[in-house]
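Bit of a strange request maybe. I'm writing a small parser for structure token strings and I need a real example to test against, not something I typed by hand. Could someone generate the tokens for this chain?
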Amino acid sequence: MKPTKNIHIALGSNKGNKLQYLQSAIDAIFERIGAVKKISKVYKTPAFGFEGDDFYNACITVQTELKPKRVLKLLQEIEVELGRKSKSSQGYESREIDLDIIFFEDEVIEEKTLIIPHPELQNRKFVLQPLMDISKSIQHPILKRSIDVLLQECKDDSDIESLNIWLKNPKKSYTFKDFNYIAIEGNIGAGKTSLANKIASDFNAKLILERFADNPFLPKFYKEPERYAFTLEMSFLADRYQQISDDLSQLDLFKDFMVSDYDVYKSLIFSKITLPEDEFRLYRKLFYQVYKDIAKPDLYVYLYQNTERLQANIKKRGRNYEKEIKDDYLDKINTGYLEFLKSQQDMNVMIIDISDKDFVKSREDYLWLLGEINAASVRSEK
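Reply from user aminoacidic:
Good idea to test on real output. This should exercise your parser:
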């Protein structure tokens, strides 16, 4: 998964339906740039540097995987789409929407088309005051002062009025409030860990990741499957039981729900494929004894990808011990999962075909996938 950075964006409007312009800009930023983490109050301020109607100003914190120049380009596209025209004169003038990058984490950039931090932020109360709402202790990477100190030192004496109106966070249209525990499942290379990470980060969920990489029998199994199959499955049985018991019992009061990149029943699916019939029957008895009291997820999401895409993803992540995985093994796993899920009448299962999607690279695909999952929440309310 790509590293993310927190950026701060200032928004302003003094033409037309100013509140709607601010909201439309935030919606577009969420769709194209990243998750909106915080939104300030809306402030009314006089036009700065020219005669014009009062501005509505706000600031937001956004988490993004994009580079600064890409963010700037997208912000400029959003401005144009919302009606902003090229300047008709030198200096400041009224505009439907104005979007400025204030901070990009703690990066310092000085180029012809992009300067970060914004060079005038310390002189503008209409930027500093909304920043106080969302990040008052953030340090200016050049001036080495926090926002609250910069506001105290600011010589801008413009009137600034906090309005009793609120901008909405677009991510709240994706609701997971009816689920305490969501399990993301899929074949090897389907993207379940990437999705679990993104959901946990964007929606304040406790993240539970399978600790498979430390299993000493996994590389041996891929080289000699018949010899190490039972040993591998038994070690997974013990490890998964210990981990899921610990994670599900440790409540985090500061998280809204839990999301995992596996479900314990995958042990049955894989063991049925890897073990001879007699060993599988023994394994199944042990499994149900061990897992009889483990809570099932409120929503089970299965990410289906065709074998060609799975192999491409496996190759891309470059794990040496996965180089030996054959197409027929992946086919068997997909079949095993689908047969298992069809038999689970008491489990809330959602199968999503993502063979033509890339939610890791494409935010549009990621939001589509969230919409599909969100549909399960909507159905559960009816």
